[in-house]
From TrEMBL:
PANTHER family: DNA-BIDING PHAGE PROTEIN (PTHR46558:SF4), TRACRIPTIONAL REGULATORY PROTEIN-RELATED-RELATED (PTHR46558). This is DNA-binding helix-turn-helix protein. One of its GO terms (molecular function) is DNA binding. Keywords: DNA-binding. Residues 16-70 form the HTH cro/C1-type domain. The lineage of its organism: Bacteria, Bacillati, Bacillota, Clostridia, Lachnospirales. SMART domains: HTH_XRE (SM00530). It comes from the Bacteria.
Length: 117
């Protein structure tokens, strides 16, 4: 997999927070397990700091996730399963009418994108 020019630290932070919460862990608990300051976890989750590779590996080991789960938004070649999960999450709180409208918007957008190629 090839990295894009820049990492999306905001998305990385969102995915980190999601994974931490899924493990029922506080920022403080995670920071203790990776031997870091609680404020560091907060900065990472807010996308205001960039983690070192060593820190990312520690976090992934503690949260029992693959590093690609955190970096998938910054990878050029990403698994469609991540996109499927993102779509599912986006639509999870929509009404049937909202889903129908979004589907129509998506169909028109897709057609427009393909016509521009």
């Amino acid at each position: 997999m090839i990295l894009k020019n820049e990492l999306d630290y905001t998305k990385l932070g969102e995915r980190l927070k999601e994974a931490r919460i899924k493990k029922h862990m506080t920022q403080e608990e995670l920071s203790e397990k990776i031997d870091s300051a609680t404020s560091s976890i907060s900065h990472l989750e807010n996308g205001t700091h960039s983690p070192s590779l060593k820190t990312l590996i520690k976090i992934c080991n503690v949260l029992e996730i693959g590093i690609d789960a955190l970096l998938c938004d910054s990878l050029s070649a990403i698994s469609s399963s991540y996109l499927d999960k993102d779509f599912e999450k986006l639509l999870s709180d929509c009404t049937v009418q909202e889903k129908k409208l979004l589907l129509r918007i998506l169909e028109v957008t897709k057609k427009t994108i393909r016509e521009q190629k």
